[in-house]
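Changelog-adjacent note: as of this version, every example in the card shows the full chain rather than a window. The one below runs 139 residues end to end.
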Amino acid sequence: MSRADNRALLMSYMTEVWERGDPEAVALFADEDFRRHQSPTAGPLDRASQIERLKGFRQAFPDMTIEVEDVVVTDDRIAFRSTLRGTHLGPFMGIPATGRQVEVGLLDLIRIENGRFAEQWGGPDVYDLLTQLGATVTV
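Full-length structure tokens:
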């Protein structure tokens, strides 16, 4: 795929999954063998697990929006920086709804294969998100 095609794929994904709030739409963009890497020490999520993860975010932050700030595209990779905004109205990582507004940065890298997402790395700044929700994070 061309760089323009890859950029269009990302923007369609952001529209369907995030603007329209449809985590199930991940299946339209991610390959059956898709892997979502969240941490070097944890195993990757498969496509179904990624959909469930996004449903959890949507339940915790039902008014969530994500604004794409920067995009860098190559022939088989998309890197982007975005900002998540929303209101904490449902449980998130064991934290009951607080009603707090959050604004968190995200950095993601997606590998494209045959016009679909094959792998993805990165995500939201979870430490910042938990801090905004009033959690005490110890290392």
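Structural remarks: The longest strand covers residues 101-113.
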